[in-house]
Amino acid sequence: MNDGYDLHVHTCRSDGRLTPEAVVRRAADNGVRHLAITDHDTFSGLDAARASASGLVDLVPGIELSVTWARGTLHVVGLWVDPDNDALRVAVHDNDRERHTRAERIAGRLARSGLDGTLEGARAQTAPGAVPGRVHFARHLVERGAVGDVREAFKRFLRAGRPGAVASRWISLEAGVAAIRAAGGVAVLAHPLRYGLTATRLREATRAFREAGGEAVEVVCGGDGPGQRGSASALARRYGLAGSVGSDFHDPDQTWRDIGRLPPLPADITPVWSLRAEGEG
Ligand code: AMP
Ligand code: MN
Ligand code: MN
Ligand code: MN
User: If DSSP codes are grouped into helix, strand and coil, which group holds residue 64?
Assistant: First the structure.
């Protein structure tokens, strides 16, 4: 099982459903030995996760940064980062501020489509002190009966081109990767096959990521099949990137991407954890 690594997991501090404590427990129960908590644009779950991880799993400090590339959004996972690093704190702060104003813009757009009160509704789906993202709007739309499930909420209201879609002003790809590196971390291009990019654009994005200082790409992602793994492996080989493995776990009801339930990296792909020198943190 990939030497016990799962390097992409969410908690309720962003859009996951479980508390950091419950995520750590579930990881340990599932046989994970090295767990990265990678909430969207926040470190607010890290202390609680670290406290409960002691003796159970090796907790890798991580984050999933939203970044802008060519007017679209990419996700960059930072692993083994120092959350107190100033450059990374600035990057996280800028994205967090964008998340707050973006939630208001989403609610404004939905109101114009006749859906009032969605900001309050999304907040009710969000952990105290956390900021509502699109998943919280989706859960609210399900709860009020506007849609049948979260997938439908994205499809009808939240995806690009839909009534609740907004242009997001994240930090740039270059700034995100630089901040992760400044914080001593390894930058990983997350779930490359989930951006809806053409093969050509995906290669351009991967090249830009590597030129910015990115060192790995997620080759094994929760819920992906052999076809997607093959395409992601080809990107790793083509651009000389290491491979990461991550379930992108959010929700215990979504068992197809449970923590630690991941096929192995192809044998010729360098595991991202081998980029960490022996004995480091
Ligand atoms: P945000 O960062 O607020 O724009 O939300 C992005 C998150 O929404 C992703 O990390 C996923 O958790 C979730 N997501 C994106 N697309 C979909 C979809 N089509 N169906 C369900 N969840 C999605
Ligand atoms: Mn998410
Ligand atoms: Mn993502
Ligand atoms: Mn994720």
Answer: strand
| Backbone phi, psi, residue 115, to 5° | -105, 100
Ligand nearest to the CA of 192: 3
Q: Which residues, chain by chain, have CB under 5 Å from ion ligand 2?
A: 15
What's this model's pTM, rounded to 2 decimal places?
0.97
Q: 10 Å Cβ neighbour count for 216?
A: 25
Model confidence pLDDT, tens digit, residues 150-188 = 999 999 999 999 999 999 999 999 999 999 999 999 999
pLDDT digits 0-9 by tens, 42-52: 999 999 999 99
Strand, coil or helix: what is 139? helix
Q: Which ligand minimizes its atom distance to the CA of 133? A: 1
Q: CA angle, 109 as apex, 104 and 112 as ends, to 5°?
A: 125
Residues 6+ apart with CB under 8 A from 13: 20, 39, 42, 44, 45, 127, 130
Q: Whose alpha carbon is nearest atom 8 of ligand 1?
A: 135
Residue located nearest, by CA, to atom 9 of ligand 1 = 135
Among protein residues, the one with the nearest Cα to ligand 1's atom 11 is: 135
